[in-house]
Design a protein that fits this description.
Length: 546
């Protein structure tokens, strides 16, 4: 295999060597010097050829893999993505590609809705590897050899899987739990259904549940399926507050509240440490269940990672899922009911479990510690736990035994942790590209510190109209208005409308093209039709940056 002479670096330049090599490879791919599907040199060989350390080449390959230019498989060559389109039609490197590339790029300018080239930037869609990791295929192969049994597996989940999920929740989210505290589900929606049915059984009636507004639409629909009374809870960028819940429950007792504390959906903020404790104090006083949707906590990009609310109090049901890291097609999640008690740990109960992250979550001395649970509240949660397992037993196991054994092995072998690390790198590169592209155009961004989407205020533009115009252009996004219940009495409490743009599913080349279309639509004067992206000038950079 020949090496590519144009991939050298210049030590006299101030740019880091890995950045130089990344740009050289990217330009070579876009210019057609390295063809789609063509293998790149092994990292050691290229490093020796251009006189750099192997870590420089590894960093460049990893970044370009995350951006979608390259694809890498364990034990195989790193190659240029075979289906790589030339989205950057204005890139100077295209001058080297010839007339055929010009025709190909021109044909890709139009993005008809419903075609394979439609760019999907809707929130909640993660990246899914086209080739599953080898550790997963090995685990699945080993599980397929397990003997068939005359009876179904444990309805709450195969014990090895529940133990592996409990270990992950303890290490990654600080929740003091064991296998008996885990109920396996197919994902968030089924977890909410199980909890709602359990609440019906405990209270002998449909529950009254507070939900964030704007918030998770699918969760609201699940609750409504079981007849639950939905009570909208107005939230800001940083999510719910203890004071807000107290005001709401003063109008009528609440049985539960559904929160997304680590990354509020869709606004993107997170509930502070002080507010988490205030919410837990409210829950203990009222006996309400806190349902914590921990849906994308693995992807924290800025700021300290706060442990799950379930790590602070046993009266929390934490919903976790593997689907955002692996693929929604895997359909695996869990409800985790912690068995620790943070109040007892802070009070020095020698029988309690040490809370390794608890001191960091109480920085404000004015915020009282979570009080010990009233006896009635403790009994309520004990009944809820029994009801939850009973509901799961009535519905049967969430997965066939072979799938549960494979998932357990994948978790225990470290395959899931490695997949988290890999997807974090990919999302980090895409997020950096998105923020850089928006900042260059002077477009502010909110909610970018975690998760897989950002919120883009639209100013004087109509966000709903912008969503429709982008769909016409072949780019799918969403807006905050679509996640409002319309039930809030005080419309002034509703946050301004904004676009919600996900960056998880699409590779960097298509993401860049989609953002260019968003800039074209938002760059047009409010109230006027936006020009096509191919003719409109880029919007001037504003002083304020994201």
């Amino acid at each position: 295999m020949d090496l590519f002479p144009q991939l050298g670096v210049n030590r006299a330049l101030p740019a880091p060597l890995s950045d130089q090599l990344t740009e050289r490879i990217r330009s070579a791919v876009l210019a057609g010097w390295i063809a789609p599907g063509e293998a790149l040199p092994p990292t050691r060989r290229l490093a020796a050829a251009i006189g750099v350390s192997r870590s420089v080449v590894v960093a460049a390959y990893e970044r370009l893999t995350g951006e979608g230019y390259l694809e890498s498989r364990q034990g195989a060559d790193t190659r240029v993505t075979p289906e790589l389109p030339l989205w950057r039609t204005n890139d100077p490197a295209r001058a080297h590609c010839g007339a055929a590339a010009d025709e190909r790029a021109a044909a890709e300018t139009e993005l008809p809705v419903g075609s394979a080239r439609t760019i999907d930037l809707r929130p909640g869609r993660p990246h899914a590897a086209t080739v599953p990791p080898r550790s997963w295929t090995r685990a699945l192969s080993a599980a397929a050899k397990h003997p068939w049994l005359p009876d179904a597996s444990d309805s709450s989940g195969e014990v090895s899987l529940r133990k592996a999920l409990a270990d992950h929740a303890r290490r990654a989210r600080g929740i003091d739990c064991a296998a008996d505290d885990v109920v396996v589900t197919t994902g968030t929606s089924e977890a909410l259904l199980l909890l709602a049915l359990a609440l019906c059984e405990v209270h002998g009636r449909p529950p009254r549940i507070a939900v964030e507004d704007p918030g998770y639409r699918e969760g609201i629909r699940v609750f409504e399926r079981v007849g639950a009374e939905i009570v909208p809870l107005a939230v800001g960028v940083n999510g719910a507050t203890g004071a807000g819940l107290r005001m709401l429950s003063a109008q009528g007792a609440l049985d539960a509240v559904l929160l997304t504390p680590s990354h509020q959906f869709p606004l993107g903020g997170r509930i502070s440490a002080a507010e988490r404790l205030a919410i837990l104090a409210w829950a203990r006083e009222t006996g309400a269940l806190v349902i914590e949707d921990d849906y994308d906590s693995e992807f924290r990009h800025a700021g300290a990672l706060l442990p799950a609310m379930g790590s602070l109090d046993r009266g929390v049901a934490t919903i976790t899922t593997l689907n955002k890291v692996l693929s929604p097609s895997i359909r695996c999640g869990a409800i985790v009911l912690g068995n620790g008690d943070s109040a007892e740990r802070r009070n020095g109960n020698e029988n309690g479990h040490p809370g390794v992250l608890t001191p960091d979550l109480d920085p404000d001395p004015a915020v009282p510690a979570v009080p010990a649970a009233p006896r009635a509240s403790t009994e309520l949660h004990t009944h809820l736990r029994a009801a939850l397992h009973a509901v799961r037993a009535d519905l049967g196991p969430a997965h066939p035994l072979v799938m549960q054994l494979a998932l357990a092995e994948f978790l225990e072998s470290g395959g899931f942790r490695r997949e988290i690390a890999r997807t974090r790198r990919e999302y980090r590169h895409r997020r950096e590209q998105l923020l850089e592209q928006l900042a260059e155009a002077g477009i502010p961004v909110q909610g970018a510190d975690g998760g897989l989407h950002v919120v883009i205020p639209v100013g004087d533009h109509d966000a709903t109209a912008a969503v429709a115009e982008l769909e016409r252009r072949g780019v799918l996004v969403d807006c905050v208005q679509h996640y409002r219940s319309g039930r809030l009495d005080d419309s002034a409490s509703e946050p301004p409308d904004a676009l919600i743009v996900g960056y998880g599913a699409e590779p960097a080349t298509r993401l860049r093209a989609g953002i260019a279309e968003i800039l074209a639509v938002l760059g047009a004067p409010a109230g006027e039709a936006a020009q096509p992206a191919s003719t409109q000038k880029a919007p001037p950079a504003a002083a304020a940056q994201a």
